[in-house]
Amino acid sequence: MKPTLPATLLHTLAPWRNAPAWHIAFSGGLDSTVLLHLLVSLAKIENLPPVSAVHVHHGLQVAADAWPAHCQSVCDSLGVPLRVMRVQVRPGASLERAARDARYQAFMQIMGAGEVLFTGQHRDDQAETLLFRLLRGAGVRGLAAMPEHRPLAQGRLVRPLLAFSRSELEAYAHQHQLQWIEDPSNVDSRFSRNYLRHRVLPTVTERWPQAITHLARTAEHMAEAQGLLDELALMDLQRADQPSAFPWLPLPSLALAPLRERSDARQRNALRHWLTPLTRLPDSDHWAGWYALRDAKNDAQPVWRLADGQLHRSGERIWWLPSSWSEFSHAPVSWPDAQNPLELPGNGQLRFAGKAPSGVLVIRYRQGGEVIEVPGRGHRDLKRLLNESGLPGFVRGRLPLVYRGEQLLAVPTLAGSWASSMDHGQLHWLPQTCDQGLS
């Protein structure tokens, strides 16, 4: 005999039963209404974390103005606290995606450490997602469709109903006489998912009745395949994750040589894994920028521009620069008391280790042609010294230079490449960290 819906759900929830709190994304529709009722029913016979609901009001249609009151009524009848969050949906090419982004931004605001947010997507939604992404030419990761769980803010997002069909949820709702909202936009076939749901899948299932189950199973196979690709990527990235000559530079980077030893496909797989937390990636037809960067001559400084930043190459190393890296002021900064550290606007902190120079100092940035006195070597061109150090070109424009009057007095010590003048201490620069917005 097939297990009941509550029994199967309880088994699915087992990994999350020690969470501090459970939240339910409650739209008031069929899926989330059934999920809320199930969890409240299970909580009466099982020791579960405290349950609350959150309703996100997008304000995209007049009918939606009545939904918070409906959700409040349902939650009151079940004894569940409800939080209503109103969001602004940014206009864009895809209204569906913009609404989803706004919704998940709201969910992230309520998540405490270790807490779980449950959403009500079911097997039919999974089949639609797979088909939608297949038609857009997605790769293995995209065809894995919606994961059963993933990180969200400080906690986890969990989809506990993926094993159930919409018809099973409808049967449960009718059995328990549940009332839910029917979103008028769900029948608008101008939206791609609705077109698949109402026009394509009914035709497919008429010929192949088990199509939705099989599509969902394919998504599971793709998720497993993606897991193997991730394991392979981690193996390749471990070889490339060699220490940089500039450990103080807080930017993700990899050694290029170990990547070159791999096939093009394995290179792309490793880079996708590495870059996914950092930026949106191009499709498989737009990787020419990577090959140009990889194959450039050693003295070149090629750049691969991506959606949320840039991949730079310096010598035999690649560096990720988020878009915010360039967001700092080149304006001179006065340093009246060099005994104390100096915060540079958008560019980290500067300090002297040991004796600081006397007088009022000014921080400026490179214009070209700078010369500095190096103990034992006399006056040296700064550009040549930087070339000797191997400092990546994208850092040089941010390098703070200490002047007293018109004299270039000090440059941050770069891994001991050269010493400062003996009449003052070493100048140290701690660039902006990833926690401060570089990642």
Automatic annotation (TrEMBL):
It is found in: Cytoplasm. Residues 361-429 form the Lysidine-tRNA(Ile) synthetase C-terminal domain. Its EC number is 6.3.4.19. Gene3D superfamilies: 1.20.59.20, HUPs (3.40.50.620). SUPFAM superfamilies: Adenine nucleotide alpha hydrolases-like (SSF52402), MesJ substrate recognition domain-like (SSF82829), PheT/TilS domain (SSF56037). GO terms for molecular function: tRNA(Ile)-lysidine synthase activity. This is tRNA(Ile)-lysidine synthase. The gene is tilS.
